[in-house]
């Protein structure tokens, strides 16, 4: 199986247009971009894919050693860009994909033209002078709960991630996505995600960057978005009037508009 089949890569839009790659967050798949990605198909060559263990990817290609660090996922991303021979990519990454995109851009800056980081967090655990949103005990408990009862954990955490209590169907959709993921891979991906620390990488980001932050996000608080924007040299922070960690689902119009404005600037 080739790289494109392995990651269930889907390409749409203008075949000779500038490339725009959308990368999903933990427990999700490319379907989560369905309200945003089509808005760019009239101008861009739009690329969607699934990380191993999610969506229509091939979980058999998962390598516990390679994927024990976010850099392994950055390698997967770069492999896709190589396979499609893409350069000057506008990369849109949600949640953990934001840091995966940062790592990939640091390794091969000529492959990227801009980054759009949706709900990014370089470190989820609080540290001296840094607010990540969680204590070490919080994360340890989260990971223990996930590993002991993945489906139960998913149904409990997805309403927290999504917010928007008045629209329970959104949390329901996210939970269904979590349930489709390979539980073994999801547990390891969660550990890699929630224990990562990429704060030192932000100052070296080589391309203009948009940081999209929901005003009410239980997973990546506003303080985290502000930190990311302050650390990346050429960056812009946009606070979306949105609730939850998935504004591309809960506020797709505002998300799309902010990306359009960034690309036009």
Short characterization:
The chain has 265 residues and is an alpha/beta fold.
Provide an overview of this structure.
The protein has helices spanning 3-6, 70-84, 96-107, 136-148, 150-162, 168-180, 183-194, 222-231, 247-250, 252-264; strands at 10-13, 19-23, 45-48, 89-94, 112-118, 209-216, 235-243. Helix 4 crosses helix 5 (150-162) and helix 4 packs antiparallel against helix 7 (183-194). The chain has a single domain (3-264), classed as Alpha/Beta hydrolase fold, catalytic domain (Rossmann fold, 3-Layer(aba) Sandwich). The protein has a 7-stranded mixed β-sheet, with helices on both faces. The mean pLDDT is 94. With 265 residues, the chain is of the alpha/beta class. The radius of gyration is 17 Å and the shape is globular. It contains 10 helices and 7 strands.
Any chance you could write out the topology, listing elements then pairs?
Layout lengths: L2 H4 L3 E4 L5 E5 L21 E4 L21 H15 L4 E6 L1 H12 L4 E7 L17 H13 L1 H13 L5 H13 L2 H12 L14 E8 L5 H10 L3 E9 L3 H4 L1 H13 L1
Parallel strand pairs: 2-3, 2-4, 4-5, 5-6, 6-7
Antiparallel strand pairs: 1-3
Helix pairs in contact: 2-3, 4-5, 4-7, 5-6
């Amino acid at each position: 199986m080739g790289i494109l089949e392995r990651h269930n890569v889907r390409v749409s839009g203008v075949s000779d247009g500038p490339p725009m790659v959308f990368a999903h967050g933990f427990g999700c798949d490319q379907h989560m971009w369905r309200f945003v990605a089509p808005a760019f198909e009239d101008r861009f060559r739009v690329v969607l894919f699934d990380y191993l263990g999610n969506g229509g990817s091939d979980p058999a290609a998962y390598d516990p050693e390679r994927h024990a660090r976010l850099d392994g996922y950055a390698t997967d991303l770069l492999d896709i860009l190589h396979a499609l021979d893409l350069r000057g990519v506008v990369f849109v990454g949600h949640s953990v994909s934001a840091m995966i995109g940062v790592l990939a851009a640091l390794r091969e800056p000529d492959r990227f033209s801009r980054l759009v980081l949706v709900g990014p967090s370089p470190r989820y655990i609080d540290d001296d002078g840094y607010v990540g949103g969680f204590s070490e005990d919080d994360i340890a408990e989260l990971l223990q709960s996930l590993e002991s009862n993945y489906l139960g954990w998913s149904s409990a955490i997805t309403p927290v991630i999504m917010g928007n209590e008045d629209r329970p169907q959104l949390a329901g959709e996210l939970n269904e996505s979590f349930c489709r993921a390979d539980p073994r891979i999801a547990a390891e991906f969660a550990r890699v995600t929630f224990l990562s620390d990429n704060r030192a990488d932000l100052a070296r980001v080589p391309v203009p960057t948009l940081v999209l932050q929901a005003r009410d996000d239980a997973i990546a608080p506003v303080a985290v978005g502000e930190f990311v924007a302050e650390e990346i040299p050429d960056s812009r922070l946009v606070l979306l009037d949105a609730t939850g960690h998935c504004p591309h689902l809960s506020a797709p119009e505002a998300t799309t508009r902010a990306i359009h404005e960034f690309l036009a600037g």
